[in-house]
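Tokens in:
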């Protein structure tokens, strides 16, 4: 489920002096298809600059280039997924998933970059697109499903997690370790 007031939440969190950077993400799970084969995938709609300020994703792009805000229907995929789909930079793939009303939607995307990770699951499942492209297909407007936060001091994560839980009790609040053990890029 997406956060209906996510713009307000993002703005409020970003003003906190403990927060170094923040990135809102739109998520979808579905099928990704190339001309020869298909696979399941996690589609992550990002603001390229915000995401890079939190995860340094651009540093993991080993072929092609990182997403730019002007890119329309462009995608970055993991090396393992590229091998599985038998695609490369400049290949086209089709993402198919459900919108917020349960309708099946699809979009054709051109691969602009391929990333590598120490975690093969990330490489095989995650696809990154511009947030506006995914939100447009999904009909989620400016709302996000997930917010990634980078604190100035990593030692403050447990305390800040409690602050977020108290401030937003209806939202799931997890540290990176809780969310995805061993998934560091």
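Residues out:
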């Amino acid at each position: 489920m997406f956060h209906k007031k996510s713009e307000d939440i993002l703005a409020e969190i970003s003003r906190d002096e403990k927060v170094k950077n923040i990135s809102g993400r739109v998520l979808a799970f579905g099928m990704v298809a190339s001309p020869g084969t298909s696979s399941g995938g996690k589609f992550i709609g990002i603001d390229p600059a915000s995401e890079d300020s939190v995860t340094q994703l651009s540093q993991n792009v080993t072929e092609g280039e990182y997403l730019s805000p002007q890119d329309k229907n462009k995608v970055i995929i993991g090396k393992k997924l590229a091998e599985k789909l038998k695609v490369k930079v400049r290949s086209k793939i089709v993402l198919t998933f459900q919108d917020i009303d349960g309708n099946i939607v699809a979009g054709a995307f051109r691969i602009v970059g391929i990333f590598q990770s120490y975690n093969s699951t990330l490489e095989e499942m995650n696809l990154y697109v511009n947030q506006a492209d995914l939100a447009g297909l999904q009909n989620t407007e400016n709302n996000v499903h997930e917010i990634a936060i980078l604190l100035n001091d990593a030692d403050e994560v447990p305390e800040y997690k409690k602050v977020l839980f108290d401030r937003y009790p209806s939202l799931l609040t997890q540290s990176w370790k809780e969310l995805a053990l061993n998934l560091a890029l």
